[in-house]
Each structure stands twice: as C-alpha cells, then as structure tokens.
Amino acid sequence: MSITVQIPTALRRHTSGVGNLSCTAANLGELFSVLDERFPELKPHLRDEAGQIRRFLNVYVNEEDIRFLGGPTYAFQDGDEILLVPSIAGGS
Amino acid sequence: MSEYDGHPNYELRCRECGRSWGNQPRSVCVECFSPLEITYDYDAVRAEFTREKIAQRPPNMWRYSELLPLPENFHPSLPVGFTPLLSAAGLAKKIGARNLFLKNDAVCLPTLSFKDRVVAVALSQARAFGFDTVSCSSTGNLANSVAAQAARNGFKAWIFIPADLEPAKILGTQVYGAKVVRIAGSYDQVNRLCSQIADEHRWGFVNVNLRPYYAEGSKTVGFEIAEQLGWRLPDNVVVPMAGGSLIVKIKKAFDELIALGLVDPKPVKFFGAQATGCSPISTAVKTGKTEIEPQKPSTIARSLAIGNPADGHYAIRAITKTGGWSEDVSDPEVVESIQLLAETEGIFTETAGGVTVGCTRKLVRDGRILPDQVTVVCITGNGLKTTDALAGAYEEQAAIAPKLVEFERYLANTLDVAETVEA
Question: What is the CATH number of the domain that holds A76?
C-alpha cells in the first residue's frame, strides 16, 4: 500500500532533514523495515535493544492512534497518512 | 529560542537513558524518545532548604523555590498555592474513616485549580527562554490558568481545547483575552495536534516543550501536605489521575523531603483515582499490567478524560511500588460524591474531586485504606466550573409571595410536623 509518513523535527537529524516520505508498506512492521533501510541512523531511536517500538513513541494513522486500529496487525490502506509523535501529554 | 547553560541547581535529564540536556524548551529525549525530567543538585540546596528558613517565607508555593526549576532572579507575580489542608471529620464519618484530610486546591489562586502551580513554573521558564506566546492543550483548568497567568505576565496566549468542553471553562479562558481554538476531537487528539504545532511554531507550550519544568510545579502539593502535617508524611495519599503526572510528582516531593532530611522516612501508599469512563491507569493497576492500553474517554469528569496518559507508566509504578491501588467510579457516583463532599465539608469541587472522593470511599470500604491511617485526599478543582454535572440534581423551587403567611404555609408543606412544632 502506498502511504505517507511524517517524521517529527526532533528526529530529522537522523533522516538528513527529510520530514515527509512516501513509501509502500503493508503494516507497521513493514513500515519500520522501510525506515530502517532508508534511514539506518533512525532505527535505534524508534526501537529499543529488543527491537520493540519505544514505549514513548506513538504512531497515528489518519489522526487515529494505531493501537485503536489493531496496532501491528492493522493493514495499511492506500493513502494512509502516518504520524510518529512522542508521547507527551498535558493534563486537565 | 535561547538555551541557557544550566543553573547551578537543576537541569533536564532523560528519565530512561539518563542523558543530560541542560536547560532548554524540550520535553523529549531525541536518543530514545523518553520524557525528560528535572534533576537537582541536592547538595547545593541542602543548606538553604531547611524547615526554619521555609517557615519565615510567605505562605505560597514559592517558599519551596530551591526545589523548583526557576530562572535566576525570578520574581513571582502571584501568590500561588499554599492551599488549606483541612481535617475532614464529617466526610470521614460518612465513609468509615477517622483520620482524613483534604488538600483543597479548589481554592488555589488565581484560577481555582492545582494547575495554577504548574503554569506558574512553566511561565517563569517561558520568559527565560524568550517566548512571547504561551500555549497549551487543555481539558479546561489548564486553559483557565494559562490564560489568566499569561494576562498577568504579559504573554499572548493560544489555547487549544476539545470543542465539547464545559461552557464555564471556555468562558473562563476567553475572559482573559486568550485566543481559544476549539478542536473537533478528543483531548488526546488536541494534544497530538499540539505536539505537531509545537514542532512548527516558536511558542511556549506549557505541557509540550515546557512540560518538564511545568510538571515540577505539582511537587508543591506534596511539600505543602508534609509541612501542613507538621513536617510529617501521611500514610496514604489519594490523587486524581488524568495524564498521571500529579501522583508521580507528589511522590517525588516526598522522596526529596526525605532525602534532604526535612521529614522522617516513612512508607507512603499512593492511591490513584479515575472515572470508570476513562480509566486506563486504574485498569492497568487492577489487571497487573505495567503499560497503558489507551481508551476512548466517555465520562462527565472531563478534566480527567485523557485516554492515553503520558505519565501513565510512571503513575502505575508509583502506585504499585508503594503498595497502593487505583480505583475508578461511575458518573452517578461522581455526582453523589460531589454532593457528599459539599454536604459534609462545605467544599464544592468539580467532577475530578467527585472522582477522588468516590474512589476514597471505595478504598476505605474495601479495606485498602485503614480507618485510623492518616489519609490525604487531593481536591484539585472547583465545582463552580462544572455546574452542568449537577444539572437535574435539584428540583427547581417554585417562588412564593413575600408574605409571612405564605412562608408558614410553605414551611408546613415542606417539613414534617415534628420539625415544624420544634421550630
């Protein structure tokens, strides 16, 4: 599936300044493989030593938290817009 | 924005990988995406931070300045904090406890919620970093506080809120001249949007890029509880949880006081309170999980309606490591508990306070809080902001003519005979 991915500013120094890319991936696992290949320096910032997505990294698909869509099992649709956002939140 | 190379006493450090980030408007470690936290040089503050010196200072949160990340030469513009700690015998009796205290931030200045504490610290740093505009995502109380304190301190304010917020909280933000942006979405969506905006605009978002500084303001609730108990720690604290930061910071405050020798070491159990309609943290605690499963909030306790709490992981840890627990209550229980607190203690709290009181009642009933233990219940907001939660709770009274005979008739119809005779 053809999707677009937004990279937050904080991580763009690991992507040679690239903030937006289009690629083909069927699901989250494939997307991370694409990112690993395209931006090898980015990998340790997105995943921990065990290869798991870092605890404080949230992934959104068209504004929806991917965990509500099935997380890693969610099958990307053509045109999906993926956002990587650090988990920082306010309060009341 | 300007960075400055550190104050002698504090700096940003990654909570997970420990990397130091000096002092700058940043909340996330670029190495591992984890949140940043303020750490202090405790040896440097030890000599100044004593019970005697604190006692000589004015009764507001700035009396604990050595353990707050404040810029050098900072002069507070408002006497925030130092709210009453009240013994609550009436409420205690009703719920089967005997040693209950209320930390009443429903009367915190200037905007009647504990958020005034965090905003006061965040704006001190917004100025130091050179921002002229401050901003936040908010479920209401934070919006009110940022707007008011921005006005007082000469900042422009942009406030982002979920569109369905209580009217009093929207009006109570607009009145200060803040620009209010209503977002057609949940708080979690507003918050995610603000992360993106903070990435693009040079604004001081108190709960995004200023978050590590902001969050430290919550510690003053803990410092005050200890000082107001006579420099003792309680046995239990019950804290409402939205993003999960407050409970973590009260624990940090107690730990700091122990480390600096201001209170005797003592195990304190931390209890978290949530609304059942938005209970990602209490669900995790009850099911023995260490991570949050996000939820879609559906509760009248909108100030606690954060389905993906950023500090959830740390809140779970604070609760489970201290032998505490987390409870949640339904919306009808929230309303009942607001009424219970008002009728027993004369405190009108907002829905979050109803959540906290309702959960305290459950915790006592279930034997997780023992009646004789010193238990502090944190009331974090004011009921006048969420009066719609009580819509329909009271019958509208018919007016009577201004005549004594009319009143006597009214009285006879209202009271039973015995009371009338006695009167």
Answer: 3.10.20.30
pTM of this structure: 0.94
What domain count does chain A have? Answer: 1
Tell me if B85-111+218-390 shares its fold with B115-214.
yes
Give the residue from B399, B64, B98, B10 showing the smallest Cα distance to B250: B64
* Lookup result for tokens 């009145």: B175
Is residue A57 within 8 Å of residue A76, measured between CB atoms? no
Neighbours of B281 (CB within 10 A): 29
* B159 has pLDDT over 60: yes
pLDDT at residue number B316: 98
Looking at chain A, which residue has its C-alpha nearest residue B295?
A: A68
Question: Residue B251 corresponds to which tokens in the numbers above?
Answer: 């624990």
Residue A35 distance to chain B (closest CA, Å): 16
Q: Is the pLDDT of residue B418 over 50?
A: no
- Number of cross-chain residue pairs from A and B with Cβ atoms under 8 Å apart: 108
- C-alpha B19/C-alpha B188 separation (Å) is 28
Nearest to A86 among B33, B189, B243 (CB): B33
Q: What is the pLDDT of residues B357-377, one digit of tens each?
A: 999 999 999 999 999 999 999
The span from the CA of B390 to the CA of B17, in Å, is 46
Tokens of B332: 């009808």
Contacts of B33 in chain A (CB under 8 A): 45-46, 54, 56-57, 86-87
For residues B117 and B125, give the distance between their C-alpha atoms in angstroms, rounded to a whole number.
13
Q: Which domain range does residue A71 map to? A: 2-86
Q: How close does chain B come to A74, measured CA to CA in Å? A: 16
CA B133 to centroid of chain Cα atoms: 24
Domain B85-111+218-390 class, CATH top level:
alpha beta
Collect all residues of chain A within an 8 Å Cβ-Cβ radius of residue B378: none
Q: What is the pLDDT of residues B5-24, one digit of tens each?
A: 444 599 999 998 999 999 99
Domain spans in chain B, listed from the N-terminal domain onward: 85-111+218-390, 115-214
Q: Do A68 and B294 touch (CB under 8 A)?
A: yes
- Above 0.90 for ipTM, yes or no? no
Q: What is the pLDDT of residue B8?
A: 59
The span from the CA of B107 to the CA of B81, in Å, is: 9
Q: What is the pLDDT of residues B176-224, one digit of tens each?
A: 999 999 999 988 899 999 988 998 899 999 999 999 999 999 999 999 9
- Average pLDDT estimate for B343-365: 98
Domain B115-214 class, CATH top level: alpha beta
Q: Which of B115, B136, B192 lies closest to A85 in CB terms? A: B192
Give contacts of A58 with chain B, Cβ < 8 Å: 192, 308
Q: Is residue A92 part of a domain?
A: no
B18: left (phi over 0), alpha (psi -120 to 50) or beta: left
Determine what percent of chain B is predicted with pLDDT higher than 70.
96
Which residues 6+ apart lie within 8 Å of B74 measured at CB?
Answer: B124, B128
